Amino acid sequence: DAKTTQPNSMESNEEEPVHLPCNHSTISGTDYIHWYRQLPSQGPEYVIHGLTSNVNNRMASLAIAEDRKSSTLILHRATLRDAAVYYCILRDRAGRRALTFGSGTRLQVQP
Amino acid sequence: NAGVTQTPKFRILKIGQSMTLQCTQDMNHNYMYWYRQDPGMGLKLIYYSVGAGITDKGEVPNGYNVSRSTTEDFPLRLELAAPSQTSVYFCASSQKGRGGTNEKLFFGSGTQLSVL
């Protein structure tokens, strides 16, 4: 199965941009890159996903390296409510349809 | 719009007891999943289903059983509860995307289970 590597934790200041990195050097050509976040005491929630091109939505932007071996989730202006664990996820092995979560990056946002 | 609903929210079991965690979704999603999350850890996939009547094992299926008789419901059964099954359990659903890929998962609020 393709794996992802993320830093265990990161800190940011409120209203500053945050760049959350993810390495996925064994990604296959058809794997989508998904990002989810989990607020304290809640289930994970979808943030964004992409295949090759950079993607934007109201929550964040996803920048995907040209070789697709890494990606970066960008929060343009961090708020205190963005403090959460962020998961970078690839599809499970080819042919399966379930997402496998790693341990993620715990983002702390300072006021 | 209810989304994914899990019951109960909390439960304490004695070793060897059995129980069923209920999960229902009202979005007509094909795919449903059960994950468990141990303290301070990420989520691990227990079982998943791509449609009514079809289920498959995930990373950690031992000690659990599932069934999918309807599109809406995906109950998780613990037959002989063990302390190692103390965890938070999340149910999720998603709709099939283009080319067979999943699109976004919707999660329930979780069931906190303690086995003593």
Rounded to an integer in angstroms, the radius of gyration calculated over CA atoms of chain B is 14 Å
Alpha plus pi helix count of chain B: 0
Distance between the termini of chain A: 39 Å
Principal-axis shape of chain A: globular
The N- and C-terminal alpha carbons of chain B lie at a distance of 36 Å
- Low-confidence segments of chain B, ≥5 residues, pLDDT <50? none
Q: Approximately what portion of the residues of chain B adopt beta-strand conformation?
A: over 45%
- Whole-number radius of gyration of chain A? 13 Å
Helical proportion of chain A?
under 10%
| Strand segment count of chain A | 9
Q: Major sheet of chain B: size, sense and barrel closure?
A: 7 strands, mixed
Largest interface: A-B, 23 and 28 residues
The parts of chain A where pLDDT drops under 50 for at least 5 residues are none
Strand order of the largest sheet of chain A: 1-9-8-3-4
Number of strands of chain B: 11
Helix content of chain B: under 10%
Helices and strands of chain A: which structural class? mainly beta
Mean pLDDT of chain B: 91
Could you give a short description of this structure?
The complex is a heterodimer of chains A (111) and B (116). Chain A is mainly beta.
Written overview of the protein:
The complex is a heterodimer of chains A (111) and B (116). In chain A, the strands form 2 sheets. A 5-stranded mixed beta sheet of chain A has the order 1-9-8-3-4, with no helix packed on it. A 4-stranded antiparallel beta sheet of chain A has the order 2-7-6-5, with no helix packed on it. In chain A, strand 3 (33-38) and strand 4 (45-50) form a beta hairpin. The model of chain A has no long low-confidence stretch (mean pLDDT 89). Chain A is 0% helix and 43% strand. Chain A contains no helices and 9 strands. Chain A is globular and about 40 Å long. Chain B is built from no helices and 11 strands. In chain B, 34% of the residues are buried. Chain B has strands at 4-7, 10-13, 19-25, 31-37, 43-51, 54-57, 64-66, 76-78, 87-94, 106-107, 111-115. In chain B, the strands form 2 sheets. In chain B, strands 2, 4, 5, 6, 9, 10 and 11 form a 7-stranded mixed beta sheet that branches. The chains are: A mainly beta (111), B mainly beta (116). Chain A binds chain B through residues 30, 32, 34, 36, 42-46, 49, 85, 87, 91-92, 96-104, and chain B through 31, 33, 35, 41-45, 48, 50, 56, 58-59, 90, 92, 96, 99-110.
